[in-house]
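Design a sequence for this backbone.
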């Protein structure tokens, strides 16, 4: 177990799991999608989208790492969340990150967005609670990634429903493809190549009709 302080482990976690290229690209992608589906765009709303998407990605990245701690102990033993002795503090931090998200949604977006965020938290809690069951990892990964179209809708300013449906679904499928292509565990499933082909075709169709 880690003998470092929570602050040291937090900084190490942020540098290794948040301040990395793929998370930066994900942040920019979610932000761009949210702005694209927004009916109203201003400097203030764009800054709000940047901030809200960053907090959401950080919160759910941390939550995912907390839920995957047992699995990562075998596949990624070098990760901070595996070695830390401050898991409870990280869990509290994950919960505390809900407060600024809820505040922004309540003040700048309205009760509907706040209710959807609450529903997302409940859904993810139930999904992570089933982590130790016989739920196939490929299915679990696809379910976990459903959060990203919701992120896009939550961050968007008065999202256009049709445009959000197209863009959100395309973004979701693209992330599913990336996860299957980059995760050796998921590539162990015999159907992963077929799923990538189907999902890539679906993205092409969606982009044509945006």
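Sequence:
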């Amino acid at each position: 177990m880690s003998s470092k302080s929570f602050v040291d482990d937090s900084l190490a976690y942020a540098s290794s799991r948040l301040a990395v290229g793929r998370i930066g690209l994900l942040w920019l992608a979610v932000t761009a999608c949210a702005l694209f589906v927004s009916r109203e765009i201003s400097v203030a709303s764009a800054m709000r989208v940047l901030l809200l998407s960053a907090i959401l990605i950080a919160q759910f990245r941390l939550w995912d790492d907390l839920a995957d701690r047992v699995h990562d102990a075998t596949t990624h033993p070098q990760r901070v969340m595996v070695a830390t002795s401050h898991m409870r503090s990280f869990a509290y931090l994950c919960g505390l990150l809900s407060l600024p998200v809820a505040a922004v949604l309540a003040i700048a977006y309205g009760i509907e967005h706040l209710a959807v965020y609450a529903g997302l938290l409940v859904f993810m809690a139930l999904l992570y609670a089933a982590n130790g069951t016989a739920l196939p990892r490929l299915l679990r990964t696809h379910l976990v990634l459903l959060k990203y179209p919701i992120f896009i809708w939550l961050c968007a300013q008065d999202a256009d429903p049709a445009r959000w449906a197209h863009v959100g679904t395309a973004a979701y499928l693209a992330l599913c493809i990336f996860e299957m292509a980059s995760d050796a565990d998921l590539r162990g499933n015999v159907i992963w190549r077929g799923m990538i082909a189907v999902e890539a075709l679906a993205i092409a169709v969606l982009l044509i009709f945006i």
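The first helix runs from residue 6 to 18.
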